[in-house]
Amino acid sequence: PKVKGAELTLFEDDFESYQVGDFPSSGGWEMIFSGAGPQYQVIVDNVSASPTKSLQLLGQSSWACDTVKRFNTNCPIIGYEAQVLVEDIDVVDWPTGRVGFWSRAASNIGRFYALVSFWGGGTIKADGQVLQNYTANTWYKIRVILNKETRLFSVWIDDVLLLENAFVPHDTSNIEAFGLASEMFGSFKAYFDDVKVFYVFDLDPKLELVPATGIAATTLVGSGFAPNSKISVTWDGTPIPTVPSPLITDGYGNFTAI
User: Fold this and answer.
1) Pick the CATH number of 5-201 from 2.60.120.560, 1.10.10.60, 2.60.40.10, 3.20.20.70
2) What is the spatial distance between Cα 48 and Cα 83, in angstroms, rounded to a whole number?
3) pLDDT tens-digit map of 35-89
4) CA 166 – CA 44 distance, rounded (Å)
């Protein structure tokens, strides 16, 4: 997806507001699977991308730690950012740190969408492709934008576009949350910081009158505006009453008024 537009944040979390040693459930995070045990899925202050805390996760063999935070939007273009660090690299090439959109409705154990994974052998992958190598104990900024209508997503690592318009093979209308995971490996921990989930809307809004000419042109049709936003109409500096009133764009940034 080409990012021609503005972003509005659905939620963000730098994990600074939680107590060390706690799981951040007070911030809306849910532990779907507990991995190596709840005692490992906690806020820490000895590793962080931005001072002074991050979320530590640790999976174990045959049992992942999946944590999610739910969100809701009708906007077709959504995205996420997260800082990710994996503490070590091993010869066993199995996913460790993972970030992506998530849905429990899609399968009994849940499913990730537009997923970016740090593999134990030292590579970062998405869509089955190696995007780049990574170094242990180093933070990487992951950014993904997904168009749910076309089911295409793109991936940036440290602000460099490395994957463009990869196809999601599953129905993205099921997406209900953003997820962080330490998968079924268990030898070393993954850390997450500075998480943000957002949606994207067009910066080139359009207005048209229907019909386009004549005195009967009384219907105003707008598209490409900020979703769920109040619209005011003026003519030569004078406010014009509309029906409906107040005039609010829908979840896709569109409206129709008279």
Assistant:
1) 2.60.120.560
2) 9
3) 999 999 999 999 999 999 999 999 988 889 999 999 999 889 999 999 999 999 8
4) 34
